[in-house]
Amino acid sequence: MPDDRYRLSLLARARVWAAPQLLQLRDFCRDCLEDIPLLTRIASHVGLLLLTVLTIGASAIQIDLNNDKGGPTVSAPTDLDPLALPPDPIPDEPVVLIQAPVPITTQPKRVRRDVVKYTVRSGDTVSDIADEFQISADSLLWANAKLEDNPDMLSVSQVLNIPPVSGVLVMVQNGDSVKALADKYKSKKTPADALVQNIVNFEFNQERHDLKNPDYALNVGQYLMIPDGYKPYVPRVVYAYSGPIPATAARGTGNFGWPVSGRITQKFWSRHPGIDIGAPTGTPVYAADSGYVVQAGWSNVGYGFMILVNHGNGYLTRYAHLSAMIAEVGDSVKKGQMIGRVGNTGNSTGPHLHFEIIRGANHRNPFGLLPGR
Description:
alpha+beta; Membrane-bound Lytic Murein Transglycosylase D, Chain A; two-stranded antiparallel ribbon; 20% strand; elongated
């Protein structure tokens, strides 16, 4: 009996202690059910926890369908060429990653298939026009008979023929043949046989002539392009002043100075026997060396107003396209003495000084005789 009373007393005490706790749990559950946002948060946390557990479990499981019962094997495709795969890196060696090459497609340059008509603008030079159309300056001159012997005949509004490529552009005349033209315009660099093939293979010519004919029939009056052809240059012959030398004439030293301050706009080359120095109209022009004036006036060959100085030592210098002439024929001038002003007279596309150095019948490159720029 005492034991039963003792047990009942313990059970009663447990009920008394548990009763308030159960009431609090009931109230908490009721509050949770009534508080929907709180319930939502709890559910989302529990769901996230379950998803995390499932993900970890799935990543740790390896499914092997090739079991002892001979089931099918599911694996990655194995038909790749093993030679196409990079070799496994050697342990303890750094792995070097090489960027795959990026293919670059270069569009071939398209050759023009016609003769372009170009109208000269202010400031143009023969060499500038040739560079613009990616041909040689000689090719441009050969295609325009008026300029061929004197590039300084270039003038504003003049219309030029622009050949499709560098070489000799000719108008076919009676009696012309591919072989004869190749012999005429051959060079050491490109012999006649090579020129014949150049002419026949050039699409520009195929459109204008019957080059499939064994005799290469040419149509008179049509253009024919001779790619890489060369027209020999026949230099102009000049004659020095042969009149009496003034008693007071100064004699040159052979050491030339720059005749004007400005910017080089055209250099010396086979068809341009001097240099062009661009400067504003009216800029002073000075004698490059001492001597006496043998010509001063208007030139009929494109130079405009021009002065020619004899230096008494075999050299002459020419100053062309002047706007004003200060020195006169027979005047003795000293090196550095003002003799005229820059202009735009004659065949000129902009104000500049055309300057030449002549010795005997030959034009010398002024860059080789003037002090360094």
